[in-house]
Amino acid sequence: MSERVVLPLLLALICLLNNSFQSEAFASSKLRTRSKIIEKSFIREDCVTVLNLGAGNDAQSSNSDDEEEEEDPLALGIDAVRWLPSVKEKPVKESSNSNNEDVEILPLFPLGVHTPQSNQILNIFEPRYRQMYNDILMNGSKRFVVTLCHPTERGKFAQVGVMFELEDLKEVSELTADQVKYICDHRVTDRVKVHRIINPEAWESRETYLQVEATRLKEDDNSEEPPTKNAGIMDLFRIGSAAKTTLCGTEEETMLRNSYATLVQLQNDLQEDVRFSNASVSTLKVKPGSGKDSLWETVRLWESYSQLRLKARESELQKSFRSKLLKYLQNQKKLKDGDLSGASIDISSLTPELQKDVMELQKRMVIELKPLALESTLALQKILEADTHQQRVKIVRLFVDAECRRLKAKQLIRGMFSSTSAGLVTTAEEEKVNNIAVPSSPRSSILLDEPDAFQ
Question: Which end of the chain offers a freer environment for a tag, N or C, measured as fewer CB atoms within 10 Å?
């Protein structure tokens, strides 16, 4: 065999061995401990599909210098997300994407983070978005871009969003005294990359809606063309490398499944109020693409889980005040047990002391819950903007691992302080308390959307 043939074969063999060693090192790498995690929301106990976060091998992780640390997706906080330049910045006069036939000019509706292959219903009342729907109906496109608003800078939006395609529209202005114009059903189809905002001045004037240049992002499916009879050594090497990448992807998905199984076990051991069912472990969906078995199904369940956890924490913060309110209603207002269910109280009708408690409760909820809600939103955005399926799998796993660490810490603390606290209300009393609506002042929500972004 000539040297010309041997040399490429040796190089290819060395590269494949190197990739193999790197893959093994990656599979055994340990996660870097996150100091703070954005808790996203919550999910029901009976959900049957979910994603998975860290593997249960943290206790056995080695301190070897060979181990690599995996980067926290939200290590940079808000700056971890890819943002477009603010509409207040000097606009770009010319775009290098103008001649790209894949680029579309589409309306932009800033409405938070949404996942592909989901359904969304919007109530449309703001004048410029009424006009937007009229326009997309007239031109027949029936689609627009939805993306996330920057949490602290008005007029700044995430670079990666999704495409909303209108499926049904109902005119309800007569039924709502023109408070709401349309009720619209949408299908969220593709991820979208926004290149630039064409008319940034419209954001401040509010005379019309924003328009953007955007490109649909295709879902990768890890597919690779089979080799031909005349394939050369470099073609075979390329195909071999792609096959190795697919194998790594399978390993990453397996790590996600293991992490999720660990999470479910921890949730059940701790008897968490919000937890996944044991049956969901075997039905975890991690496949690429956008089908019913795709990773996006798991992402949506994780989003629901985060939302439910946030609500559970909110209820926990309200519990002490609810007990005070229960005594007030029974002693001062002379309400009987049958009158307490679903009772709603105006804050102005409370005693000065209780009014002060309400204000303190609202402040505490904003301080504690707003960061958790923000972290949850940013986490979903990071998953959305990941360039490949394997990157998304890894990011989901990292968030699952973070939740596992939180529960392990809780398990450790519970073991140290296992005695039951005195003075807890009984189940019957707790049910009465939870049925009372805590009075709130206007606009006391944790995260406020734009007034024209009502869902």
Answer: N
